[in-house]
Amino acid sequence: MIDSPLFDPALMRGLEQVAAALVLAAVVVGIVSLRGLALEREWGLAIGRGFVQIMLMGSVIALLLSVPVAASAFVILGMMLGGAWIAHSRAGEIPGAFRIATAGIVLGAGVVIVVMTAVGAIEARVRDLVPVGSMIVANGMKASSLALDRFGDEVETHREEIEATLALGVTPSRAIARHVERGVRAALIPTVDSMRSLGWVWIPGLMTGMILSGEDPIYAAEYQFVVMAMIFAAAGLASLTCGALVERYAFTDAHQLRSFHGES
Predict the structure, then answer these.
(1) Alpha-carbon distance 43 to 183, whole Å?
(2) Which of 92, 171, 204, 244 is the most exposed place for a label (fewest CB within 10 A)?
(3) How confident is the model at residue 118, as a pLDDT?
(4) What is the 3-state secondary structure (H, E, C) of the chain?
(5) What is the pLDDT of residues 146-184, one digit of tens each?
């Protein structure tokens, strides 16, 4: 009989579940292809990439469980830089998009992780820091991506209006204030909607997992809210940071609106 961690019953059961999930995802991609929506390549690559990345991360975490907790800082920093690259790819036409996204994610997610670890909401262990930190970083990334994407659309749509406003002597910050505000608001819509529906429309996976593992449902609810509040704070700080930095890169020293087709 083969005795190997690779043939652990739990892992084999997980592979069966992965196969079932992939079949469902493949059906959706197939329908998209049949309808000619031209999204099957992007969606298919995203699903495949997501599977490979999450399996690699599981393997990395398994290895990190035996190393000092300080190693988790490097893992989280890598997540932040990866998140900034993904956010930049969605808003690459904005000058300095990668630098803006990096600052937003590092500040937004970094502050939340440090503060909540200091107060004990996140245990200072690799087992806790990396998974919880990844959720916070991912939501900081989403907020940065949405804020930059919306801001780019706003500027391209209202470029003539902004330039006319600048010609009247209005400062750059005032000329784009309304558009930055719309970007920040758009970035926070998913997080705000999640908070509104928490415990009513949906029970998040973390709370469900804690209850299934035997934790007290009330404590599971409390901790789930803590996590959602951390996600909200990270997303808010990230989007606000991106909004604050956009002006620096969107205008020249002569207060002229830059072309959004340069380097990012």
Answers:
(1) 25
(2) 171
(3) 92
(4) CCCCHHHCHHHHHHHHHHHHHHHHHHHHHHHHHHCCCCCHHHHHHHHHHHHHHHHHHHHHHHHHCCCCCCHHHHHHHHHHHHHHHHHHHHCCCCCCHHHHHHHHHHHHHHHHHHHHHHCCCCCCCHHHHHHHHHHHHHHHHHHHHHHHHHHHHHHHHCHHHHHHHHHCCCCHHHHHHHHHHHHHHHHHHHHHHHHHHECCCECCHHHHHHHHCCCCHHHHHHHHHHHHHHHHHHHHHHHHHHHHHHHHHHECCCCCECCCCCCC
(5) 998 888 888 878 888 888 888 888 888 888 888 888 888
Separation of first and last alpha carbons in the chain: 56
Helices 126-157 and 71-90 sit at what angle, rounded to 10 degrees? Answer: 20
Please list, in sequence order, all residues whose beta carbon lies within 8 angstroms of the beta carbon of residue 94, skipping any fewer than 6 positions away: 100, 148, 151, 152, 246, 249, 250, 260, 264
Residues 6 or more apart in contact with residue 214 via CB below 8 angstroms:
none
Is pTM beyond 0.90? Reply is no
Amino acid at residue number 1: M
- Are 241 and 149 in contact, with CB atoms under 8 Å apart? no
What pLDDT is stored for residue 92 in this prediction? Answer: 60
Q: Which two tokens stand for residue 31?
A: 């329908």
User: In this structure, what token pair is assigned to residue 184?
Assistant: 């920040």
Sign of CA dihedral 244, 249, 253, 254: negative
Domain segments of the chain as ranges: 1-64, 69-250
For helices 159-167 and 172-197, the axis angle rounded to 10 degrees is 140
